[in-house]
Design a protein that fits this description.
9 helices; alpha/beta; TIM Barrel; 19% helix; Seminal Fluid Protein  PDC-109 (Domain B)
Length: 504
């Protein structure tokens, strides 16, 4: 029997909060471009039957771009081995400081106990010209150009941190054009900037609501087949994804009869009857985790391309009122033991956007980490913890303190000790030395020995020169992003540049 309950999805951003209320058979939430993914409900009447159908369909979304004459060095891939427990943070690109060469920033100062970073977010259908370092068509929202981002990534690589480009989020899967993916352009961006690989943060139509249907299952499979074909493991590229926390539990529509976490075992595993199966907001021992439309959506994906996945950082938050968050790790661990990928259990700095019906704390993050550390099916994999997101903070706690607690517990520190030391950590300020473009520290893409204009940048200092459309421009006052030379009175033309395609 399906119950009609209030569907609450909160799109949490640094800029805005929005609330959506719907009445539906069940519930769930997902994340937008400036937040993390949430569970989404699908009425049972519109779901397809169980499927493991695999169809490799390549979407051709090549963008016609004018090239520039520049050189670059490919530095992508070459990821550090996952030889210690994963401590993973989403970093919101829109919260980064405006910096230039050699300066510290929020991104550059991340300490080394955080050993993996997902930089959020790039568009799936991004447009990028190799060697241009032009981020304007990528969706990445750092307030500086690609050469400066390359230096930022280099600063983290020098600390032993794998920086992975997160592709998608909620906002960037909103329309059909999202699936016009040019995988080669994604790889070019990864190589130019120096990312260790990519994270497929797949949230079709901005949620998890339809992620388990046949179309989206096959899309997810295609993402891995296509990206792995040009970013092979042997060259050091990491491929990750951030699915729903309930994705490996057996569901009504995607199930695995061989799994100990199959749908028919829900009552035995949770010790509960089905009275609250579809009551997601209620406090339970996990029975309502089995009632999502997205439950089980990763099962056919893992069976098809599990050997192509390096890391699954599942979103173990915004999953309603269940107090049993360990069951989600247990289900993914069952498949990790077969396919060899590493797991990062996703937690959220409180409050969760949906409800909240459950709050992560230092204590329960430490307990979850200890559960992972001692899990019989971990099989010495370096499974760990992921958080959305690193820069969230409050009184006496932060994204950093949660990850510090997790790091200690995942390395054998008793829970009580790990909690007591939650806030004992330091940032690691950047002191320079990482390379930007053209092999120079903090360099920038240039033509005629002048920086190429980047529409995502601010130009705060009057008299700054840039090259745009074969012309040299100089700003008269403070220039905001997207105030384009030739289209804004803040710029004046001061010369011509004959370098670059079409400029002779």
């Amino acid at each position: 029997m399906a119950w009609c309950i209030t569907h609450f999805a909160m799109k949490y951003t640094l800029r805005t909060y929005s609330f959506l209320f719907l009445c539906c058979v069940f519930f769930a939430c997902k994340k937008d471009n400036n937040t993390t993914a949430e569970e989404e409900e699908i009425p049972q009447t519109i779901m397809p039957p169980p499927t493991t159908v695999v169809t490799d369909t390549t979407n051709d979304g090549t963008t016609d771009t004018t090239s520039m004459t520049m050189t670059s060095t490919s530095t992508g891939g070459d990821a550090f081995p996952v030889d210690e427990p994963v401590i993973l943070a989403y970093f919101p690109s829109w919260s980064e400081n405006f910096v230039s060469a050699g300066q510290s920033s929020k991104l550059r100062d991340i300490p080394a106990f955080v050993n993996h970073v997902f930089l959020a977010f790039a568009k799936p259908n991004l447009s990028y010209l190799k060697g241009s370092y032009d981020l304007s068509g990528t969706g990445i929202e750092v307030p500086y150009d690609g050469c400066t981002l390359k230096e930022s990534i280099g600063a983290l690589k020098a600390k032993g941190i794998n920086v992975i480009l997160s592709v998608g989020g909620e906002t960037y899967w909103r329309d059909a054009s999202s699936y016009e993916i040019d995988y080669a352009q994604i790889k070019d961006l990864v190589d130019d900037i120096g990312f260790a690989g990519i994270d497929w943060d797949f949230e079709p139509d901005g949620s998890f609501q339809q992620i388990g249907n046949e179309l989206n299952v096959n899309r997810f499979i295609t993402f891995f087949n296509e990206s792995r074909s040009i970013m092979p493991k042997e060259e050091g590229y990491l491929l990750a994804c951030a699915p729903a926390g309930v994705g490996a539990l057996g569901g009504q529509f995607n199930d695995d009869p061989a799994s100990p976490f199959r749908y028919e075992q829900r009552n035995a595993i949770t010790g509960e009857n089905d009275d609250l199966l579809f009551q997601g907001t209620q406090s339970t021992n996990g029975i309502n985790l089995y009632g999502f439309g997205s439950t089980g959506h990763m099962i056919p994906v893992i069976k098809a391309v599990g050997d192509k996945i390096d890391l699954i950082a599942y979103q173990g938050y915004n999953t309603g009122g269940s107090n049993n968050r360990a069951i989600m790790y247990d289900a993914y661990a069952y498949y990790a033991a077969q396919y060899g990928f590493v797991i990062a259990a996703g937690v959220h700095y409180p409050p969760e956007p949906w409800g909240p019906f459950y709050d992560y704390t230092h204590e329960n993050v430490a307990m979850l980490s200890e559960h992972i550390y001692s899990h019989p099916e971990r099989d010495e994999r370096n499974d760990g913890i992921m958080i959305w997101q690193l820069l969230l903070e409050g009184s006496g706690s932060s994204g950093y303190s949660y990850l510090n607690t997790a790091s200690k517990a995942l390395n054998g520190t008793p829970v009580a000790t790990a909690v007591s030391q939650a806030n004992i950590f330091s940032l690691e300020p950047y002191g320079g030395g990482a390379a930007g473009c053209e092999g120079g520290a903090g360099g920038t893409a240039t033509l005629c020995d002048i920086a190429v204009y980047n529409p995502v940048n601010q130009y705060p200092n009057p008299g700054t020169q840039v090259v745009h459309n074969c012309q040299i421009w100089q700003n008269k006052w403070y220039i905001n992003p997207n105030e384009i030379p030739g289209e804004n009175d803040g710029w004046e033309k001061v010369g011509d540049c004959t370098e670059g395609e079409g400029c002779s």
